[in-house]
Design brief:
Length: 51
């Protein structure tokens, strides 16, 4: 398994920029959008059956 650190670095950089663009506090919805952009959820595969 190869772990790429780039998504972590990108998310942290974007979070830092979001904090710099505000009064110093990043709201929870903004945190969630940033994390979802860099770490999209694993959606279930509709073609997969577990019978």
């Amino acid at each position: 398994m190869s772990l790429s650190l780039q998504p972590f670095v990108d998310a942290l950089a974007e979070l830092g920029q979001a904090q710099a663009d505000t009064t110093g506090f990043v709201t929870l919805p903004t945190w969630a959008r940033i994390l979802e952009r860099h770490f999209p959820p694993d959606l279930p595969d509709p073609g997969c059956t577990t019978e």
